[in-house]
Amino acid sequence: MARSGDSIDVRVQRSKAAVLAQTYELLSAGGIGGVSIDEVSRRSGVSKTTIYRHWPSRAALLVEACSTIGSAPPVPDTGSFGGDLAALTEELAEQLRSARWAAVLPSIVDAAEREPELAGLHADLHARLMAPFGVVTERARARGELAADRRQDDVSAAVAGPLFYRRWYSREPLDSAFVRRVVEDALVRLR
Amino acid sequence: MARSGDSIDVRVQRSKAAVLAQTYELLSAGGIGGVSIDEVSRRSGVSKTTIYRHWPSRAALLVEACSTIGSAPPVPDTGSFGGDLAALTEELAEQLRSARWAAVLPSIVDAAEREPELAGLHADLHARLMAPFGVVTERARARGELAADRRQDDVSAAVAGPLFYRRWYSREPLDSAFVRRVVEDALVRLR
C-alpha cells in the first residue's frame, strides 16, 4: 500500500516514531542540553505544532524518548545469592561499558538537580535499572542468605556505587577483575 | 584611593574576578549548559573582547572558574586507618549534602562524556577531591594496616561509590547511619 493510502492513524504513529527517534539521537549526541523542539522538528520533518499536540512540553517528549533507556535485563536465577549477584553485576558492567544510555544518563542526572519533571524521569529510569537487584535480594532474604539488617538499598549501593564511580567519576576501565572484587566484597558484608 | 586611580593591573584583576564570579554563579544555577560568554559579559559588565583576551575559550574560562570547586579538606591524622577513613568519609558526606559543587559536578561529569577539554577539568576536580583518601591509604599501608593487594582506587571506590550513588542516583538521604555502615563495610574488606 502506498504511503498516501495509509490511514491517518498509521501516519500519526509514523510521525511520533520519527520524533522519538530524532529526540533520542540528539540526546545521545549532546545530552539533554542538545535537545530542542526546533531541532527535533527540523530533523524529523514533523512540524512543531504537531509535536506539541502529542507532547505538551519538551520534558514530556524527553520522558517518552527515554522510556526504553536502561530497560532491565532478565533477572537471573542461578539458585544462590552469590550467583545471581555476580550475573547481574556483570551485566550492569557490560551495559556501563557499551550501552548508549551510559553516555546519556549523566545529562539526566544533571537535569534532575534542577528540573522537577526531569527528576521524575531520572527516578523512573533508576528504579527500572535497579529493580532486578531488588528481586534477587528478596529471594536471598526468603532463603535466609542475607544478613537480617540488610536492605535492598544497601545491596544496590554496595554494587552499583563502585561501578558507577569507575564509569563516571574516576573513569577507570570496568575490567572483570574489578567487577569480581566488587561482588566478592559485597557478599562478605551482606551475607 | 578612588577606582579611577587604580593601576591597570588592579583593574584587570578586578575584571577577571568579576568574570570568574559570574561564571561560577551561572554554573551553580544552570550547570555547564547555563554558561555562555554572552551572559557572563552581560552580568559582569566586562566586554566579550576582554573576556576572550584572558580566556581563549569558554572551556578555559570554565576550568578556571571551577578551580576552587571541591578543594580538598585537610587530611585527618587520627593515628589509625579506621579513624582517618571515618573522618574523611563524614566530611565528604557533609559536602555532598550541602556544598554548592555537589549540584554542579553532574553537569561537569556530563560534559566530560563529550568534550575532551572538560574531561580534563573533570579529571582534575576528581583527583583533587579524592587526594586525601590517597594520603590516608598510603599511611595505612606504611603501618601495615591495609591488605597487601588493596590499592587506593579500591578504597576510593568502596567509600565514595556508595556515597555518590545515594547523592546522585538513588537520591536517598546521606544519613549518618548509612555513612557509618559504608565506612565499617569498607574496613572489613580492606584491612
Summed up, what is this model?
2 copies of one chain form a homodimer. By secondary structure, chain A is mainly alpha-helical.
Q: Could you explain the architecture of this structure?
A:
2 copies of one chain form a homodimer. With 191 residues, chain A is mainly α. Helix content of chain A is 71%, strand content 0%. The first copy, chain A, starts with 7 loop residues before the first helix and ends with a helix. The mean pLDDT of chain A is 89. Chains A and B meet through α6, α7, α8 and α9 of A and α6, α7, α8 and α9 of B.
Query: Kindly state the mean pLDDT of chain A as a whole number?
Result: 89
Percentage of residues in strands of chain A: under 5%
Helix-strand category of chain A: mainly alpha
- The radius of gyration of chain A is 20 Å
Secondary-structure blueprint of this entry?
Two copies of one chain form a homodimer.
Chain A: H1 8-30, H2 37-44, H3 48-54, H4 58-65, H5 81-98, H6 101-112, H7 116-142, H8 152-169, H9 176-190
Helix pairs in contact in A: 1-2, 1-4, 5-7, 5-8, 5-9, 6-7, 7-8, 8-9
List keywords for this structure.
mainly alpha; 2 domains; homodimer; Arc Repressor Mutant, subunit A; 9 helices; Tetracycline Repressor, domain 2; 0% strand; 191 residues
